[in-house]
């Protein structure tokens, strides 16, 4: 990326005004316009030069231009067609580096679009952020993506990184942490957004690690759904309806009088390993 091309880009506020991009609440549009802040977010995954980034919801393209400045090739999926002309201008300023897909991120195959080893970076629309993240966390492991760098409402970010015993600890924490490292990389004040949302935000960075052996994602998912579905109840009660769970607790030496929020990620993994893969999920021979 040449300094010349960077200089050619108009300020984001002008881009928004020129294209009449009035923020839509229904589409979760809270734009980031501070280019220094955007550069700091784009730096979280590490050196992106020569790497591919999959971005959800580029909007007027603030984070997108920071990623391009960092040397990444960007594949960006945007649902709001009003943003396409602004993104086309950005594409022209960075020839061959930005591919914009006009679609719903919930409906596209991110892996097919971005390819193996892509980093996922996004200031996510609040209404689909958790669903997309759970989808990426459920990939076959090691996953196709190299890392996730995602902006959430701070409360959701805390639910992803929380340790057991913390009030935010739950299903999302276990699904994020059992085979990945998750941390809050940056807190972002609500006033940084246009328009400002009601709550604070935070960027979570997630890097995959080797999955523990012999543990089925589906089993862990069912186990945590049951355990945290009634988080105030003892495990003896909340896991009653899940075949094999109470027996597995006993084998793992976990007191059934405990509540889900006291059970560590490693303990959930141990119980899921003992439960094994549900018969319905086993490959047919
Ligand atoms: C929080 S804004 C972020 C905009 C921009 N990346 C920024 O940081 O300023 C969320 C963006 O996601 C887009 N969006 C909302 N739902 C979407 C979906 N299902 N698929 C793709 N994009 C979506 C919105 O139109 C909006 O541009």
From TrEMBL:
Entry GO CC: cytosol
Compartments, as annotated in UniProt: Cytoplasm
Keywords associated with the record: Cytoplasm, Methyltransferase, RNA-binding, rRNA processing, S-adenosyl-L-methionine, Transferase
EC number: 2.1.1.182
Domain Ribosomal RNA adenine methylase transferase N-terminal: 33-210
Superkingdom classification of source: Bacteria
Keyword Transport recorded: no
MF terms (GO), sorted A to Z: 16S rRNA (adenine(1518)-N(6)/adenine(1519)-N(6))-dimethyltransferase activity; RNA binding
Similarity remark: Belongs to the class I-like SAM-binding methyltransferase superfamily. rRNA adenine N(6)-methyltransferase family. RsmA subfamily.
Functional note: Specifically dimethylates two adjacent adenosines (A1518 and A1519) in the loop of a conserved hairpin near the 3'-end of 16S rRNA in the 30S particle. May play a critical role in biogenesis of 30S subunits.
Name recorded for this polypeptide: Ribosomal RNA small subunit methyltransferase A
Species assigned in the record: Sphingobium phenoxybenzoativorans
């Amino acid at each position: 990326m040449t300094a010349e091309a960077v200089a050619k880009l108009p300020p984001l506020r002008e881009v928004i005004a020129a294209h009449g991009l009035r923020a839509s609440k229904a589409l979760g549009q809270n734009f980031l316009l501070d280019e220094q802040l955007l550069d700091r977010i784009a730096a979280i995954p590490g050196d992106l030069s020569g790497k591919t980034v999959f971005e959800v919801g580029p909007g007027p393209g603030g984070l997108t231009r920071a990623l391009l400045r960092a040397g990444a090739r960007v594949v960006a999926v945007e649902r709001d067609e009003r943003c396409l002309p602004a993104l086309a201008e950005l594409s022209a300023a960075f020839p061959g580096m930005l591919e914009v897909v006009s679609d719903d991120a919930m409906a596209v195959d991110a892996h097919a679009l971005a390819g193996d080893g892509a980093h996922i970076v996004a200031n996510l629309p609040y209404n689909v952020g958790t669903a997309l993240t759970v989808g990426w966390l459920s990939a076959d492991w090691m996953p196709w993506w190299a890392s996730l760098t995602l902006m959430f409402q701070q409360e959701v970010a805390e639910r992803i990184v929380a340790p057991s015993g913390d009030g935010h600890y739950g299903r999302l924490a276990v699904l994020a942490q059992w085979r990945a490292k998750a941390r809050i990389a940056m807190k972002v004040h609500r006033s940084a957004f246009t328009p400002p949302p009601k709550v604070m935000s935070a960027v979570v960075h997630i890097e995959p690690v080797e999955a523990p052996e012999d543990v089925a994602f589906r089993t862990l998912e069912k186990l945590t759904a049951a355990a945290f579905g009634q988080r105030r109840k003892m495990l003896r009660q909340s896991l009653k309806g899940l075949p094999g769970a109470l027996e597995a607790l006993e084998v793992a030496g976990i007191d059934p009088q405990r509540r889900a929020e006291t059970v560590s990620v490693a303990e959930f993994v141990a119980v899921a390993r003992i439960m094994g893969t549900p018969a319905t999920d086993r490959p047919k021979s």
